[in-house]
């Protein structure tokens, strides 16, 4: 392919009018990059596959890329995690990479998985498998050398697309067609796939939302029939999958998809306020963190968020954020100047990010008519310069106080009075606080 470098602006003698041409569309650049430098042709991947194929007949198919990396490659998305299915067992893989500079990590050897590390590249290899029995949480498996059998045990057709190291596609479940048509479809009987692992219901929510999928009646019916199976899944696995859903760039679209929204509510009945996102999301161009999205869907005047914290044993950061925002909501109802005249004071005590987060929550809880107020407050929070508290321990020691608990108490009272007095205290006020508490 030949590029006209004058259009790209690299020719200093190009006519001025050409210099105003808009840059190439970002999506087009990604497509060109994928065509010219596909991930499977990287130096490290080539080295790994050559080791796997050593001493074997030419064109022997020993391993193929599968799952997300293939799906993302075909969709012109950025490929991050790389998964490879292989005919070799974990022990055979270890022998292959013995006496090389490639590191092997046992990340799931009981399931036939190891991670191969070469420089900064990590690839998870999994031996071809077939299910012998499942209980909705765990599966008893056996290894196989049959690629079709391996594809039969996967969840969605678009996740059962294989690609060899030369870029040739093997598509036993017709996943490419479904990927192109944006249909997230279970492989074979949806009931059977779900009953093998009930977490697949939540994975379906993620994939269907990510690809704006058309949802088939038989899929909805299968999910409704098996929804109680979610109770068999550990809360840790459910929370982990939820966070993946919340990290989707188009997560808010879930509020607009009637069928998907219904499934989401069935799995997460605590999220009473998903509709808040539908009303306000497109009015602000913010990438909301998962804990903020959770707060928007959870927090009200009840202990709804506390139940969620307990049920899913969320991280300390998420727990603290939800508790803080709930407390702010209570304070704001008691004091209408919480984000008004007392904004700077509250920024001093609680921090800019916390106040920005509460302002976001308050905006989504509103009726959609408070956009200007929201933006004005966000701008004020960013601009505020918080002064440093001048009454340090050294200051109090210079006034004759001694080290100890009393000094800390006086310092705290000075700080509170200093903030309440618009970050200023005169000599008489300082003397009065020190003398009355010494």
In short:
The chain is an alpha+beta fold and 438 residues long. Helices cover 48% and strands 10% of the residues. The strands form two sheets. The protein has a seven-stranded mixed beta sheet with strand order 3-4-5-2-1-8-9. It has a two-stranded antiparallel sheet with strand order 6-7.
Mean pLDDT: 86
Q: Catalogue the unreliable spans.
A: 1-23
Oligomeric description of these chains: single chain
**Proportion in helices:** 40-55%
CATH superfamily of the largest domain: Beta Polymerase, domain 2
Q: Could you name the CATH topology of the largest domain?
A: Beta Polymerase, domain 2
N-to-C CA distance: 82 Å
> Which overall shape is indicated by the principal axes computed on the Cα atoms?
elongated
Radius of gyration: 29 Å
Question: Helix- and strand-based class?
Answer: alpha+beta
Beta-strand content estimate: 5-15%
Helix run count: 21
């Amino acid at each position: 392919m030949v590029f006209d470098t004058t259009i790209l602006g690299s020719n200093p003698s190009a006519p001025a009018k050409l210099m105003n041409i808009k840059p190439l569309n970002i999506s087009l650049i990604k497509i060109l990059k994928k065509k010219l430098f596909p991930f499977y042709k990287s130096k490290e991947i080539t080295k790994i596959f050559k080791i796997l194929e050593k001493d074997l007949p030419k064109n022997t198919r020993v391993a193929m890329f599968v799952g997300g990396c293939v799906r993302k490659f075909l969709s012109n998305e950025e490929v991050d995690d790389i998964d490879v299915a292989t005919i070799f067992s974990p022990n055979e893989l270890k022998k292959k990479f013995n006496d090389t500079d490639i590191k092997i990590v046992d990340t799931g050897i009981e399931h036939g998985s190891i991670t191969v590390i070469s420089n900064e590249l990590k690839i998870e290899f999994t031996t071809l498998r077939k299910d012998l029995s499942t209980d909705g949480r765990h599966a008893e498996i056996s290894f196989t050398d049959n690629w079709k059998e391996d594809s039969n045990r996967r969840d969605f057709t678009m996740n059962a697309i294989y690609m060899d190291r030369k870029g040739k596609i093997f598509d036993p479940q017709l996943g490419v067609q479904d990927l192109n048509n944006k249909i997230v479809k279970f492989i074979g009987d949806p009931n059977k796939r779900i009953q093998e692992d009930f977490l697949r219901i939540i994975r379906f929510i993620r994939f269907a939302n990510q690809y704006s999928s058309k949802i088939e009646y038989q899929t909805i019916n299968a999910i409704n029939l098996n929804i109680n199976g979610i109770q068999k899944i550990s809360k840790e696995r459910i929370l982990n999958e939820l966070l993946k859903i919340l990290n989707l760039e188009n997560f808010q679209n879930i509020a607009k998809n009637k069928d998907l929204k219904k499934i989401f509510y069935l799995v997460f009945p605590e999220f009473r306020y998903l509709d808040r996102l539908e009303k306000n999301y497109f009015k602000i161009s913010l990438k909301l963190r998962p804990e903020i999205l959770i707060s928007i869907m959870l927090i009200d005047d009840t202990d709804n968020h506390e139940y969620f914290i307990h049920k899913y044993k969320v991280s300390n950061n998420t727990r603290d954020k939800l508790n803080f925002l709930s407390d702010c909501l209570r304070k704001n109802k008691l004091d209408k100047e919480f984000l008004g005249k007392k904004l700077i004071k509250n920024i001093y005590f609680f921090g800019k990010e916390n106040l920005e987060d509460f302002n976001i929550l308050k905006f989504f809880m509103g009726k959609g008519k408070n956009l200007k107020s929201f933006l004005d407050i966000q701008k004020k929070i960013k601009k505020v310069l918080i002064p440093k508290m001048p009454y340090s321990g050294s200051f109090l020691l210079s006034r004759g106080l001694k080290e100890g608990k009393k000094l800390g108490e006086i310092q705290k009272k000075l700080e509170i009075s200093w903030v309440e007095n618009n970050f200023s205290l005169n000599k008489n006020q300082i003397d009065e606080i020190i003398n009355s508490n010494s």
